[in-house]
Amino acid sequence: MQPLLKQNFFELFRLSPGYLIDVSELASRYRELQQVVHPDRFANASEQERRLSMQAAAHVNEAFQTLKSPLLRARYLLELQGVAVDQPLTMPADFLMEQIDLREQLQALPAQADALLALMRLRDDLEQRIRDLQQAFAAMIAVGDYDAMQALLIFNKMQFLYRLQDEVDSQEEQLSG
Amino acid sequence: MALLQISEPGQTPEPHQQRRAAGIDLGTTNSLIATVRDGVSETLVDRQGRPLLPSVVRYHGEGDVSVGYEALQAAVDDAHNTIVSVKRLMGRGKDDLPQNKYHFAAGDSRVPRIQTVGGDVSAVEVSAEILKTLARRAQQQMGGALDGVVITVPAYFDDAQRQATKDAARLVGLNVLRLLNEPTAAAVAYGLDQKDEGIYAIYDLGGGTFDISILRFTKGVFEVMATAGDSALGGDDLDLAVSDWIMQQAEIDDDGDHRTRRYLARAARAAKEALTTEQEVRLDVERPEGDCWHGKLTREQFNGLVSDLVNKTLLPCQRALRDAGLAKEDIQDVVMVGGSTRVPYVRERVGEFFNCQPHVDIDPDKVVAIGAAIQADVLIGNRQNDDMLLLDVIPLSLGIETMGGLVEKIIPRNTTIPVSRAQDFTTYKDGQTALSVLVVQGERELVSDCRSLARFELHGIPPMAAGAARIRVSFQVDADGLLSVTAREATTGTESHIDIKPSYGLSDDEVERMLSDSIAHAEGDVFSRKLREQQVEAARTLEAIRSALDADGQRLLDSDEHRAIEQAIAALQTVGEGDDITAIKQACQAVEQAGAEFAQRRMDDSIRQALAGHKLDEFNT
After folding, report:
1. Where are the domains of chain A?
2. Helices of type H across B99-181
3. Is B239 labeled as catalytic in the residue annotation?
4. Which pTM was predicted?
5. How many other C-beta atoms are found inside a 10 Å radius of the C-beta of residue B286?
6. What topology is assigned to A93-176 in CATH?
7. Residue B26: which of B113, B136, B126, B142 has the closest Cα?
8. Are strands B451-459 and B471-477 parallel, antiparallel or unpaired?
């Protein structure tokens, strides 16, 4: 078997690679791994063992964070396939128009009388769009032989929507502040 | 400052013996030390039977120092030589300091030094005095020097504040097993890991700091989901609100006089404490003019005076919930920590906020030290087969300065530690061989709004065309929440040299100098101290490799590999008894080198075993 640090994150957690994963299974494998590699297990060990343990625990943390996050997991799957994830991509015009529209809705919110309610609705809308994209992405990955550019496009759309969701969060923070 | 003894190599306990470990709560107002005896964690008391040690240090001159209750008595009369609430100065720069509180010495050190009759002292040295007093208490009652300690820090402490705490321990020769976040320590003390799975909030309002942590417990594992707080808000501020009110009522002018301020702070604190049980309290305050002001303060009035401050603690609660992705309803229970949570109004407001009755079963003053002692006992290896594990987070985002004074986040807040992240840099001029990077901590977008941690300079970059070099800088935050940085030029593989200049902390040279200074005043000399330290490290290395060989040597090594390690061990044993520090150090390194591959195999093997229950054929790519 390959050394730990050379394994890909799915191998590390003994999970079959794919977009749909069992997050509670992932979390319990994560805890099992940290039980053996965490620096707390080596607090009184030699300098060398402490260093190794820190590297291993940081790697396990990184792997867990990556697979747990729907966005980072998508990115990681693309990277495993050798797709250059950060290459500039021209987004379709209709998608961009939609984005502008959603952003305008968000900006108009604070002036509205029922701002929090409208915010909630916008959030639901975003979540639905994200779910749709995730399903499309999962289906593509499951088939295996997919068009990399097509998958990359879906990933980029997800990225747009997640960023917007962050802005919704900070808007909510201000409104309820 | 006299030094504590560290275990002589010959006297280190056998591997299977109980080792002496303790938990230390280094608080703003009071400090405590606790240890586990017969399976029970308890605080150690002084000769008068008192568990608390007031975090007050008085310098008398000629190297004479008093710590605790004795020093506290002089806090008013000898205010300038008596340092209180030193925790608030830890890891702080000159610009963050209260202007009229102490006389600060002029100088070029980035670390402010307070002028006293006993010489100029930094916050690290003052804290070291407190640690030394506590460690001595433990040493006397536990029958020997401590093998290791866990020191607690507010979860919201930044890198500079954590580093300062560790430096203080280093000054008195304590082996720090871990810096543990105070709310996490409290959760351990409550034994929440013994309970079923659940999500808890720990609300910790101490003398000078406020923390809120949201933790999840699953099968012995404590996972901190989010933490937030204010490292400059605590019971001291409640006292200040009351003393401001007294000044106004009694028509006492604020002339910046230190003595009056401390006198009023004491009166305010007494009133606050009385109001935890009484509905109103009588006040008799001596005015600087010599006459006396008589008044009363009701609990309701008091609540009005502190309500803004209590509100200030609820905002971080909200933020922590949001960061954890949770709603208030998800919180099963709230645990109250810190002396200031004795204030009924605080309990009431927190209960209202989380919509539940907060837990106050363990003495809020002791709970942190008790939890730290349990963790120390686990880390030192006294508990076999205990699967308690704490997974903590970094409280504030780490970032670097980019063009235009903007911050680029490298590690966002509430990321589980340890963590390492790499970032690529390049050169902007042809033939450029050095690069300067500013590391900051905080949530704001502008560098000027964040806390500057360190500036580091990379040297030895091979000269190339602008933009051709790829310098990969790795940021690593260890389990204590402390940052370290390494750099490597990717195209040529040149290891770049990094100079780190901490913005507020002590440089290595300064710590080294303090260490030498303190040794100069103590028995023994620098050489024998260093020799002892190296011998202890050698003993530790030997013990670690032997127990590794016993456990896995047969299984994971072939006979040649085994022999090579045995040879390195024999060499270390030979020099280990001599007094050649360099030779011992080299022999230690040789053992580590010989055992490097073995250590890696053992790590991989333990991972394999941890996941042995899960079929490998679950995946098929």
Report:
1. 2-68, 93-176
2. 123-142, 159-171
3. no
4. 0.86
5. 15
6. Monooxygenase (1.20.1280)
7. B126
8. unpaired
Q: How many whole angstroms separate alpha carbon B496 and alpha carbon B476? A: 16
Q: Which residues pair with B409 in a beta bridge?
A: B399
Helices (H), B87-122: none
Tokens of residue B429, six digits = 């001029």
Token pair listed for B332: 């099963």
Q: Which residues contact B357 (CB under 8 A, 6 or more apart)?
A: B351
Count how many pairs of residues, chain A against chain B, have C-beta atoms within 8 Å.
119
Kindly state the average pLDDT of the residues B270-290. 90
Interface predicted TM-score of the whole assembly (ipTM), two decimals: 0.85
Q: Encoding tokens for residue B236? A: 């001291």
Judge contact between B587 and B575, C-beta under 8 A.
Answer: yes
pLDDT, position B505: 65
Nearest-by-Cβ selection for B610 from A33, A65, A173: A33
pLDDT of residue B166: 93
Residue that the structure tokens 């229970």 belong to: B333
Q: How far, in Å, CA of B146 to CA of B131, rounded?
A: 12
CATH assignment of B21-234+306-392, given 3.20.20.140, 3.30.70.890, 3.10.20.30, 3.30.420.40?
A: 3.30.420.40
Is the Cβ pair A62, B592 closer than 8 Å? no
When CB atoms are compared, the residue of A40, A56, A58 closest to B603 is A56
Q: Which CATH class is domain B394-520?
A: mainly beta
* Closest to B314 in 3D by CA, of B427, B229, B383, B402: B229
Question: Which of these is catalytic: B193, B204, B230, B480?
Answer: B204
Cβ–Cβ under 8 Å, residues B137 and B101: no
Please give the helix or strand (H or E) that residue B352 lies within, else none. Answer: helix B344-354
* Residue from B41, B59, B144, B51 nearest B102 by CA: B59
Q: Which residue of B has its CA nearest to A170?
A: B322
CB contact, 8 Å: B381 with chain A? yes
pLDDT at residue B379, rounded to an integer: 92
Other CB atoms within a 10 A radius of the CB of residue B406 amount to 12
Q: How far is A94 from chain B (nearest CA, A)?
A: 31
Output B214-218 pairs: Cβ under 8 A, ≥24 positions apart.
B214/B320, B214/B321, B214/B324, B214/B326, B214/B331, B215/B183, B215/B184, B215/B187, B217/B187, B217/B192, B217/B193, B218/A27, B218/A28, B218/A31
Angle at B201 between CA B195 and CA B205, to 5 degrees: 125
CA distance linking residue B306 with residue B311, whole number of Å: 9
E strand spans, A108-160: none
Instruction: Return d(Cα B320, Cα B230) in angstroms, integer.
Output: 12
Q: Give the chain B residue nearest A39 (alpha carbons).
A: B479
Q: Coil, strand, or helix at residue B285?
A: strand
> Three-class SS of residue B332?
coil
Q: Cα(B336)–Cα(B368) distance, rounded to whole angstroms?
A: 11
Q: Do B604 and A31 touch (CB under 8 A)?
A: no
Catalytic residue status for B182: yes
The SS3 call for residue B390 is strand
The token duo for A91 is: 């987004």
Q: Could you tell me the residue ranges of all domains in chain B? A: 21-234+306-392, 394-520, 523-611
The CATH T-level fold of domain A2-68 is Helix Hairpins (1.10.287)
State the average pLDDT over residues B478-485.
89
Q: Which residues contact B567 (CB under 8 A, 6 or more apart)?
A: B594
**CA torsion B436→B442→B443→B445, rounded to 10°?**
-30
How far A52 CA sits from the closest chain B CA (Å)?
A: 7
Contact B376, B23 (CB under 8 A): yes
Judge if A2-68 and A93-176 fold alike in CATH terms.
Answer: no
Q: How far apart are the C-alpha atoms of B559 and B399, rounded to whole Å?
A: 48
| Structure-token pair, residue B55 | 């975090």
Nearest to B603 among A39, A52, A65 (CB): A52
Q: What's domain B523-611's architecture?
A: Up-down Bundle (1.20)
Token code pair at residue B42 = 């308890």
pLDDT tens digits for A46-100? Answer: 888 888 999 999 999 999 999 999 999 999 999 998 888 888 888 899 999 999 9
